[in-house]
Write a structure and sequence with these properties.
alpha+beta, 12-stranded mixed β-sheet, about 280 residues, single chain, Aminopeptidase, globular, 2 domains
């Protein structure tokens, strides 16, 4: 078995990109991250592809930014030494999210993660997808409620405040950069930002929705459903074939909301979530 490493300052093999394009059409919730980061975030990305007889049988994607380190393991034939090296890369980050797309690798990755990080949370996330045919848009028509795209200058301060309510502190500059690089929809009640949803991955054929959040005191009023509906509409209106998101399997309220919008389950995956208490 041979694995080839692609990363910073390297030209990504066109065959890898073409392969990922095909995979995104089949499973956008899994493969959109790799394609997007290799094309648009190469300086923040490491990509390790496992090849056997010129066929891609696995890969490890690493992305770091804004205090977060995300690692995606796809395929069942990732060498243990590569897993160990990759997991060590996240030690300098405040938060590490490890996405495991293989039941075969899960016990191996979990054991190595215990040796490196010590404590972490294990969660099961559901991948959900919607397309033009299944989508059921939702709206709230009230004078005191406005839904719109967040602006990186106008809304950065309120965005930073709501991130702190999520227990994720970021600087005002980070808030501006996040809103500049991604599309976020905000719901405003009496001119105050109370709910939001972001499109963190935007490709020709697929968008990934994440960071759906409503202030605790404003929940139960349909605001998260409104924000998710609006950001989903933006993606489908832009011509993408599928919009995908991930939701914790324990979050039954959110799952019910997404199903009412037309999202349907495609798979379940294990995430290991590490909080670095020393940073």
């Amino acid at each position: 078995m041979v694995f080839k490493v692609l990363g910073i300052d390297e030209v990504v093999d066109r065959r890898v990109v073409e392969w990922l394009l095909r995979q995104v059409l089949v499973d956008p919730a899994t493969h959109s991250y790799a394609l997007y980061d290799l094309i648009y975030q190469p300086r923040n990305t490491r990509f390790n592809v496992v090849v056997r007889c010129e066929d891609i049988i696995g890969y490890v994607l690493e992305w770091g930014g804004w205090g977060l380190y995300a690692i995606h393991f796809w395929g069942s034939n990732i060498p243990s030494e590569l897993i160990y090296d990759v997991l060590k890369h996240g030690l300098d980050s405040r938060s590490i999210n490890i996405h495991i797309h293989s039941n075969v690798l899960e016990p191996i990755i979990t054991e190595i993660a215990k040796k490196i990080y010590g404590e972490f949370e294990r969660e099961v996330f559901i991948d959900m997808v919607v397309d033009r045919k299944s989508f059921k848009p939702y709206n709230i028509v009230r004078d005191d409620v406005v839904v719109r795209i967040l602006n990186h200058e106008r809304d950065a301060s309120e965005f930073m405040e709501i991130k702190e309510r999520q227990s994720r502190r970021i600087s005002l500059e980070d808030a501006r950069n996040i809103l500049k690089e991604n599309v976020y929809v905000g719901v405003f009640k009496d001119n105050k930002l109370v709910s939001m949803a972001g499109a963190i991955i935007r490709l020709r054929d697929a968008w990934i929705i994440a960071d759906v959040y409503t202030l605790p005191e404003q929940r139960g009023r349909g605001y998260a459903k409104l924000a998710t509906s609006k950001i989903t509409s933006l993606g489908l209106d832009a011509g993408v074939k599928k919009v995908a998101l991930h939701v914790n399997s324990k979050n039954t309220i959110a799952i019910r909301v997404y199903k009412r919008l037309g999202y349907y389950e495609t798979s379940r995956k294990t995430w290991l979530i590490v909080k670095n208490k020393y940073l």
